[in-house]
Design brief:
Elements: E1 12-15, H1 19-30, E2 35-39, E3 51-53, H2 59-65, E4 72-75, H3 80-93, E5 98-102, H4 109-115, E6 119-121
Parallel strand pairs: 1-2, 1-4, 2-3, 4-5, 5-6
Length: 122
């Protein structure tokens, strides 16, 4: 995702279908990359082909989104505690995956790195 290798054919998993998650999906699509957005709230689902409805803390939901083969996970919810938990969870599921996580508060950037994020957006 942050390298110069050709785009993976596997979709990038985006956790959180709010403003940041949707913007990430658009940016990936503009670069010819596929993605799946995991979203808890049905009213946020825009394109059912690109969304997986459910709780990202549920393994079956992450499997449906493609966690086993994805080249990267973007954790974009609006809650830092949730992002920390999901970063730890995704890192344990896939030690080799690139994880980019969102921090709303600057004080949580280091915590997200310790949780396993390769890159933190704040």
């Amino acid at each position: 995702l942050l390298c110069t290798e050709p785009p993976s054919r596997e979709p990038v998993v985006i956790i959180g279908g709010g403003r940041v998650g949707r913007a990430a999906g658009r940016a990936l699509a503009e670069r010819g990359m596929d993605y799946r957005i995991v979203e808890l709230l049905p009213e946020r689902v825009r394109d059912p082909a690109k969304y997986v409805l459910g709780d990202a803390a549920n393994l079956e939901v992450l499997i449906a989104a493609g966690i086993r083969k994805t080249p990267a996970v973007l954790v974009t919810t609006h809650d830092d505690d949730t992002n920390i938990y999901l970063t730890i969870y995704c890192r344990r599921l896939r030690p080799d995956v690139q994880i980019i996580s969102r921090a709303r508060l600057e004080r949580n950037v280091a915590t997200l790195h310790r949780a396993g994020a390769d890159f933190v957006l704040s």
